[in-house]
Write a structure and sequence with these properties.
CATH topology of one domain: Rossmann fold
CATH superfamily of one domain: P-loop containing nucleotide triphosphate hydrolases
Radius of gyration: 16 Å
Bound molecules: guanosine-5'-monophosphate
Largest sheet: 5 strands, parallel
Distance between the termini: 35 Å
Structural class: alpha/beta
Length: about 210
């Protein structure tokens, strides 16, 4: 049996990764890798579904025992991908999707060169800021921090990712990621330049 594809989806906070990933999971038989994190749950988040919410001690134990496929710090919290479940699902021939930030994506690529890295781009920086503020669950200081990180991530993404997908029209972004999962070698549609305008009319929320 051939292994499943390890698909890494990164992109700045607020770009709509969760919306895209949820739809791709619904349209394919891919499974989601539930990360462990030391950050507190947001309202509505379920332990074991959205994240495994763990204390600093448990997180360190996982790292020290080699139980993390990758891990990184983001916004003052630690996030990591538990190795065991990912390898088990891939071994069974099923695709696995990771929603992780750039450092983690690079670690995965180094460890598993066959992994496929997708970076979701916002249609513009101002649209990203609007989406972050619309979420209403993040403080102003945290939004500023996330925007600063986003600037660095979007520069880094140009060189390091296999595919750049612009989440302007949500349905379009979803179908591009589904195509990439089906055939990881297809060229990215929008890798030439960072777009500054967008007129998509998504039928699902672009805000994550
Ligand atoms: P949030 O706190 O908004 O859920 O996530 C913040 C950032 O952490 C997002 O960019 C998300 O992709 C990233 N992230 C979530 N889980 C992991 C993980 O397991 N590893 C890494 N490296 N990043 C993660």
């Amino acid at each position: 049996m051939s292994e499943g594809t390890l698909l890494v989806v990164s992109g700045p906070s607020g770009v709509g990764k969760s919306s895209v990933i949820d739809a791709v999971l619904a349209e394919t038989n891919a499974r989601f890798s539930v990360s462990a994190t030391t950050r507190a749950p947001r309202s509505g988040e379920i332990d074991g579904v959205d994240y495994r919410f763990v204390g600093h001690g448990e997180f360190s134990d996982l790292v020290n025992s080699g139980g993390m496929l990758e891990w990184a710090e983001y916004g003052g919290h630690r996030y990591g991908t538990p190795r065991g479940p990912v390898l088990e699902i891939l071994g069974a021939g099923t695709h696995v999707i990771l929603d992780i930030e750039n450092d983690g994506a690079h670690q995965v690529k180094r460890a598993y060169p066959a992994s496929v890295l997708v970076f979701l781009m916002p249609p513009s920086r101002s649209e990203l800021e609007r989406r972050l503020r619309a979420r209403g669950d993040t403080s102003a200081a945290d939004i500023d921090r996330r925007l600063a990180v986003a600037d660095e991530q979007m520069i880094d993404a140009r060189d390091c990712y296999d595919h750049l997908v612009v989440n302007d029209d949500l349905e379009g972004a979803i179908s591009q990621v589904v195509s990439i999962l089906g055939d990881p070698a297809i060229p990215a549609a929008d890798s030439a330049a960072f777009p500054h305008t967008g007129s998509g009319s998504p039928t699902r929320s672009n805000t994550e």
